[in-house]
Write a structure and sequence with these properties.
This protein is an alpha/beta fold. It has a domain at about 430-520: GMP Synthetase, Chain A, domain 3. It is about 30% helix and about 25% strand. The chain contains 15 helices and 27 strands. The strands form six sheets. A nine-stranded mixed beta sheet has the order 2-1-11-10-12-13-14-15-16, with helices on both faces. It has a five-stranded parallel beta sheet with strand order 4-3-5-6-7, sandwiched between helices. A hairpin with a 2-residue loop joins strand 23 (about 430-435) and strand 24 (about 435-440). Helix 2 packs antiparallel against helix 3 and helix 3 packs across helix 4 (about 65-80). The longest helix has 17 residues, at about 65-80. It is globular, with a radius of gyration of 23 Å. It starts with a helix and ends in an 18-residue tail after the last strand.
Length: about 525
């Protein structure tokens, strides 16, 4: 067994989240499949074969079924011509096929490029070319996004239909058992995660060539996960946060609950019916759950953990969740590039709703000034993060700024005297109006306290007199009446004068990425 998995197992045993029945099988599985997600899946299949691995819109899959089906699928990928070291492009929504293809790729020695299912066709084509994808697996409902110039095999997922195209294969036909000797694991290709792409086509972020359990180790030290948890992942699996929750759930031998698309009422039904204990979300999903009329009538007593990440968590959302649902909220701060940085526990958030929490085990946070010198507590500067989970580089070239091993997160903020991090906003989002610096998040958080406002975004627009002025885009709550002057008055009565927007626009929806980040470039 590798020392990295040994460290994870030791930590899991110490904090009491590891099923003792899995310890012997973990050793054998790690030796067979190496440091990949295939090892814990095979381990659980050996120790507790009937344990439910996945619940989705089509029913449930046990760990023994998941292990067998992914071995068959790994053999099938090789029959299609995929060679160890090549890339599988995966464009699937949240369902069992995503999980099976990810595990099978690990068994086959393939790297996975997790593709955004919200891509337009030109973005899909650009990423497929840039990342040198050899085999593409895509949901049948997304087949219109297939690049015209893609010449490799195509696997159609989430469908039992046949295809007349000889280059297209249903997942079942690829997975067809052949009686071949099961594959043996090898060192996998470095996984590639895509950035949020708030200003253009997402970049590919290449990580190290081993699955490093240190991130999972840090999480289970601070969040009380259990091996018998039922984990509903509502954030996209192709995003770093959703994928991390999937890997952690499978590593613990727990059950993952998925649904193709997020609908608040359906998600609440799943929580109640499946007795979900862990809910993985992004802030935009929390807002939709809080806005659902079904929230207060749903039995949420099984929920022990609500884990949020992916974008800034508005203070009003924190306060409302803690008040209406309870003190079960954990907020993780990090990024695709810097990995996991800080974590705020329910106790932290009850005392300081705006905090991003304290540095996680193995991570260091530093606030640096313009000269890249560390500043004293309470002073705002650029946030830099150091840990073993940093990405290596963008696949198209380039990387993030590094200072003494610490990597820029691209955000600004401060650390208080107690070691709590507070993120003020994105450095790129800062608006300079009349010589004063304004970060949109502060104004947005205030606007969200108004009962007539369901969502809001603030951007800077060119202004001849002030350089930039603030413009706010507001989504009204259903049936609400609200004037532009009322929006301006709310801000002017609460914040400094230079933070008052001079333009107010009412729109139907704020454009966001899959992780909930605002696409400000689409609001100008």
């Amino acid at each position: 067994m590798t020392s990295r998995f040994g460290s994870l197992i030791d930590t899991a045993r110490r904090v009491g989240v590891l099923d003792p029945r899995r310890i012997p099988s973990l050793t054998a599985s790690a030796l067979r499949w190496g440091p990949t997600i295939a090892a814990p899946v095979a381990s659980t299949a050996l120790a507790t074969p009937d344990r439910t691995a996945i619940v989705d819109d089509r029913g449930s899959v046990s760990y023994s079924e998941l292990d067998r089906r992914t071995t068959d699928l790994a053999n099938g990928l090789h029959r299609l011509g995929a060679r160890r070291g090549e890339h599988l492009g995966l464009a699937c929504r949240n369902h069992r096929d995503f999980v099976e293809l990810t595990v099978a790729a690990a068994k086959a020695g393939l790297g996975v490029v997790h593709l955004n299912t919200s891509f337009a066709a030109p973005q899909m084509a650009e990423v497929a070319r840039r990342e040198d994808i050899a085999v593409l697996a895509i949901d049948a409902a997304l087949s219109h996004l297939l690049p015209d110039d893609f010449r490799g095999p195509v696997i159609v997922a989430d469908s039992d239909s046949t295809t007349d195209d000889p280059a297209h294969h249903t997942l079942e036909s690829v997975r067809r058992p052949t009686g071949l000797r099961p594959l043996r694991g090898s060192l996998p290709v470095p996984p590639i995660l895509l950035t949020s792409g708030t200003t253009g086509t997402p970049k590919g972020a290449r990580r190290g060539n081993r699955v490093d359990p240190s991130g999972a180790t840090a999480l289970i030290e601070r969040i009380p996960y259990r091996h018998d948890d039922v984990v509903a992942i509502t954030s996209p699996l192709f995003h770093a946060w959703g994928l991390a929750q999937l890997f952690l759930t499978l590593s613990l031998g727990a059950t993952v609950v998925l649904s193709n698309t997020f609908v608040a009422t359906h998600a609440l039904e799943q929580i109640e019916q499946q007795r979900v204990t862990v809910l993985a979300v992004v802030p935009a999903i929390m807002q939709r759950l809080l806005a659902s009329p079904a929230l207060d009538s749903t039995d949420l007593s099984s929920l022990r953990i609500v884990a949020s990440s992916g974008s800034a968590l508005p203070v009003p959302v924190v306060e409302e969740w803690l008040d209406r649902v309870g003190p079960n909220l954990y907020n993780l701060y990090g990024s695709t590039e810097v990995g996991q940085a800080t974590l705020a526990t329910p106790e932290d958030l009850l005392a300081h709703p705006a905090t991003a929490g304290r540095a996680m085990t193995g991570s260091r946070i530093a606030i640096l000034d313009a000269d890249r010198r560390e500043v004293e507590p309470g002073r705002i500067g650029s946030i830099f993060v150091g840990n073993g989970a940093q990405f290596e580089r963008y696949t198209g070239g380039g990387g993030k700024e590094l200072v003494d091993g610490l990597m820029s997160s691209g955000d600004v903020g401060y650390v208080d005297d107690d070691g709590l991090l507070f993120v003020t906003g994105r450095a790129d989002d800062m608006i300079v109006s009349g010589g004063e610096n304004v970060f949109p998040q502060e104004v947005e958080d205030l606007l969200l306290t108004h009962p007539a406002i369901a969502d809001a975004a603030v951007v800077g627009v060119d202004d001849d007199a002030f350089g930039q002025r603030l413009a706010v885009y507001v989504v009204k709550a259903p049936g609400a009446r609200l004037s532009a002057s009322a929006v301006k008055t709310l801000v002017s009565d609460t914040l400094a004068r230079h933070k008052t927007p001079r333009d107010v626009h009412f729109i139907d929806e704020i454009p966001r990425t899959a992780s909930g980040k605002i696409r400000r470039n689409r609001l100008h």
